[in-house]
């Protein structure tokens, strides 16, 4: 099944490339494209065999995402968001999770950061607020949203909590959410990452969860950082596409002023080699950190069994993949010069997509702070979500 999902992703990638302009103009994935993704099995790739799922490793998930991003970044971004449904299911009560997700191809979208307000009421919570960056929310089946908890109008924290104000994740049906059609960014335009709101929606207690307490089968994917790992497959896939495009152009273009083909140009040769080296190093950094982490966790160990440098390597490799992919695409754009500037060139879209991807939380300086603080024995700002605490 693992190889089958990757095979289908490879077959779909050129279709996504052909439809990239349509996806971008639509500002969200067309329904037909969502179904094409669903047919690959990508939305169910994080479910384990106890669910009847393929149980792809983090490395295999990332390779699938890279492959889809080679076709279109927005489609791949929505694919990895939807695929995380199988990870969220591990943090819900398993009986409830199987009621909520009767099929393995349902999609959960939403913003995990606690941007809402959840007031305790008998049997659950009343959830209100506005959340940004709901990638794929228009085609989602369920929406998960982070919110701070209140009781009697006052901030609430569990006894013994190290936080003065606790937050949780709240799972609601898509039809209970009002989507605000405000997604009109520079790049990643087809991801439909709209804002959405809720006003007093009742969420039963059993439809809430935290990433600190997995409920399902233990293992490498029952970790608080597991839903962020494959995301870097998107910028890596775009960078690979840009590099291959440059090589294709270089083998066909002739420099009349120099009287030789681009493939014979010292400038082109050295820049292509330099960019390949940078890409290979960034990609191996991601997969190397994943393989080490996966080996420890699949053997029954915990993140505490990793050396500090090994444990920090994962979030640092994600950040580096996002940022270095943006640089790779930018330099490819410069290498092709004025041929890159037209909307008909894929370089234009790749430049804008990677610029927006590099603004994501996992590519921000606060990740450097969190990893650096951890390495120095201080307090990471985003320790739990990065698996550092």
From TrEMBL:
<dbReference type="InterPro" id="IPR009100">
    <property type="entry name" value="AcylCoA_DH/oxidase_NM_dom_sf"/>
</dbReference>
<feature type="domain" description="Acyl-CoA dehydrogenase/oxidase N-terminal">
    <location>
        <begin position="14"/>
        <end position="89"/>
    </location>
</feature>
<dbReference type="InterPro" id="IPR013107">
    <property type="entry name" value="Acyl-CoA_DH_C"/>
</dbReference>
<dbReference type="InterPro" id="IPR036250">
    <property type="entry name" value="AcylCo_DH-like_C"/>
</dbReference>
<dbReference type="Pfam" id="PF08028">
    <property type="entry name" value="Acyl-CoA_dh_2"/>
</dbReference>
<dbReference type="InterPro" id="IPR013786">
    <property type="entry name" value="AcylCoA_DH/ox_N"/>
</dbReference>
<keyword id="KW-0560">Oxidoreductase</keyword>
<dbReference type="InterPro" id="IPR046373">
    <property type="entry name" value="Acyl-CoA_Oxase/DH_mid-dom_sf"/>
</dbReference>
<dbReference type="Pfam" id="PF02771">
    <property type="entry name" value="Acyl-CoA_dh_N"/>
</dbReference>
<dbReference type="InterPro" id="IPR037069">
    <property type="entry name" value="AcylCoA_DH/ox_N_sf"/>
</dbReference>
<feature type="domain" description="Acyl-CoA dehydrogenase C-terminal">
    <location>
        <begin position="232"/>
        <end position="364"/>
    </location>
</feature>
<protein>
    <submittedName>
        <fullName>Acyl-CoA dehydrogenase family protein</fullName>
    </submittedName>
</protein>
